[in-house]
């Protein structure tokens, strides 16, 4: 990897395009270096993982809304949409599939200077692959190259540039990464990719209010919208249209006015020329349908159950954890909604206090029932929920930001005080499913997650058809890329909510 210094350059300064971060990203995307076998295998795992969480959410309202928008735009050749037959305009298929993937907050994650769900790259890249398969002669190998590139660029940007400190949503790293992935898959020249990356960043910067206070369904739409914008940006760039430049480093650019300002300096690592892209191997998926910083606390709550004979004896629970966990999903956020039984699912998903209480009481975590209104209104849960708080511990923050994978941690220490004064302490650094956890996910567990979430929604025959196609994704022909979707039987799909008509 090569480290690149990124800072603001005044317009009057001679700052050649070759030094622009967008150009360097374009060079990485255009590099014809072979995809490492391990990266290709992990891309298959994540195709399966995305499908798992998408099928589980197809009948929910936000994915149904996005799907209704896509279904009004049939196109041949086009792109598939989870749940339904036929093909549709790729940018709208990407939106529908992106919302389905993100709705449950249940797919992969990467956390460093910034936060991310790199699996959000897959819906737009796959949609374009399906749409362009015949025209460009794309194969599964090209698709894998695009996905691995998208992951690489997002992971590298997340390592180097913090957005949340300035309340910019993390999808601002997703637009450029999708554009880079599309460029790699379509074998575009560096100039075209450069313009697409710049346009994608320019059109996908937004505030983090989508993850603050009363969190709405826009949380699921935000990354899907960024993917849609990246497709449109790439389309314009292929037609010869340019982007604001330098998009990151300009004196009126992103760093100068949205991030740390004109005196800031960032270090972004990128693969050197001829170096294989391995960023996808740094990412990790979720065993539980909750915000990633809740994964280890959920497993910790399960473990604590055996140490506490009667939960009614709990006087307080303090979770000592990182800055991010405390201020985003903990009591440091100062969001009263995080203790509200009538809060939205999205809000409860971002309340580690609620999540820890339910996990401690139930000993299981279910993507549906753990968030139900009945569950949130359980009297014993409300009582326990309000006994839980978080504090930032500098050591957990240090570990959170460590570049050493053996040190990096996303967990917490729980200090449980009982009414008789007894104190019980336990901690867990990483979730059980993390690569360094008690039972890291492998292919069998990704497939098991798919079967579990597809059960009762997708026929066994359709499940096996999809899994066989996914396993062989790298060897699919152009006319086989449409197999990387899952279709519901009509009577199952009919259970989705009826969506009112809009404008489009």
TrEMBL record:
Residues 288-472 form the MmgE/PrpD C-terminal domain. It holds the Pfam family MmgE_PrpD_N. Gene3D superfamilies: 2-methylcitrate dehydratase PrpD (3.30.1330.120). GO terms for molecular function: 2-methylcitrate dehydratase activity. Its EC number is 4.2.1.79. It comes from the Bacteria. Residues 19-266 form the MmgE/PrpD N-terminal domain. InterPro entries: MmgE/PrpD_sf, MmgE/PrpD_sf_1, MmgE/PrpD_sf_2, MmgE_PrpD, MmgE_PrpD_C, MmgE_PrpD_N. Keywords: Lyase. The keyword Cell division does not apply. It catalyses: (2S,3S)-2-methylcitrate = 2-methyl-cis-aconitate + H2O. Monomer. Belongs to the PrpD family. PANTHER family: 2-METHYLCITRATE DEHYDRATASE, 2-METHYLCITRATE DEHYDRATASE-RELATED. This is 2-methylcitrate dehydratase.
């Amino acid at each position: 990897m090569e480290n690149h210094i990124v800072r603001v350059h005044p317009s009057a300064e001679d700052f050649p395009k070759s030094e622009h971060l967008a150009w360097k990203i374009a060079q990485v995307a255009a590099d014809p270096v072979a995809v490492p076998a391990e990266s290709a295998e992990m891309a298959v795992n994540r195709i399966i993982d995305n499908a798992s969480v998408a099928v589980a959410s197809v009948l929910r309202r936000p994915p149904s809304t996005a799907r209704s928008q896509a279904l009004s735009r049939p196109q041949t050749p086009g792109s598939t949409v989870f749940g339904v037959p036929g093909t549709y305009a790729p940018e709208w298929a990407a939106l529908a599939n992106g919302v389905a993937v993100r709705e449950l907050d249940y797919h992969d994650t990467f956390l460093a200077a910034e936060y991310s769900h790199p699996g959000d790259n897959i819906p737009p890249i796959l949609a374009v692959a399906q749409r362009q398969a015949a025209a460009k002669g794309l194969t599964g190998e090209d698709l894998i190259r695009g996905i691995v590139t998208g992951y690489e660029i997002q992971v590298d940007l997340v390592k180097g540039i913090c957005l949340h400190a300035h309340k910019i949503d993390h999808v601002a790293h997703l637009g450029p990464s999708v554009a880079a992935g599309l460029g790699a898959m379509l074998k575009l020249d560096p100039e075209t990719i450069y313009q697409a990356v710049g346009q994608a960043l320019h059109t996908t910067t937004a505030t983090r209010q989508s993850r603050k206070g009363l969190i709405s369904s826009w949380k699921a739409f935000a990354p899907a919208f960024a993917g849609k914008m990246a497709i449109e940006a790439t389309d314009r760039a292929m037609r010869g249209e340019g982007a604001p430049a330098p998009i990151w480093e300009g004196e009126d650019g992103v760093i100068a006015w949205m991030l740390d300002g004109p005196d800031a300096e960032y270090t972004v690592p990128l693969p050197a020329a001829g170096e294989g892209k391995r960023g996808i191997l740094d990412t990790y998926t979720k065993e539980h349908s909750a915000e990633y910083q809740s994964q280890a606390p959920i497993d910790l709550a399960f473990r604590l159950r055996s140490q506490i004979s009667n939960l009614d004896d709990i006087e307080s629970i303090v979770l000592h954890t990182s800055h991010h966990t405390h201020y985003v999903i903990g009591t440091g956020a100062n969001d009263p909604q995080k203790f509200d039984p009538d809060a939205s699912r999205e809000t409860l998903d971002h309340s580690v206090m609620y999540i820890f209480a339910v996990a401690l009481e139930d000993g299981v975590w279910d993507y549906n029932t753990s968030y139900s209104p009945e569950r949130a209104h359980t009297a014993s849960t409300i009582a326990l929920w309000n006994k839980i708080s978080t504090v930032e511990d500098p050591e957990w923050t240090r570990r959170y930001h460590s570049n050493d994978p053996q040190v990096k941690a996303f967990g917490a220490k729980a200090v449980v005080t009982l009414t008789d004064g007894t104190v019980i302490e336990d901690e867990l650094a990483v979730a059980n499913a993390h690569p360094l956890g008690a039972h890291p996910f492998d292919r069998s567990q990704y497939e098991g997650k798919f079967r579990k979430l597809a059960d009762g929604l997708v026929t066994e025959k359709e499940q096996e058809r999809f899994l066989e196609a996914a396993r062989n994704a790298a060897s699919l022909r152009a006319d086989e890329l449409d197999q990387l979707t899952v279709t519901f039987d009509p009577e199952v799909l009919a259970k989705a909510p009826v969506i009112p008509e809009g404008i489009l």
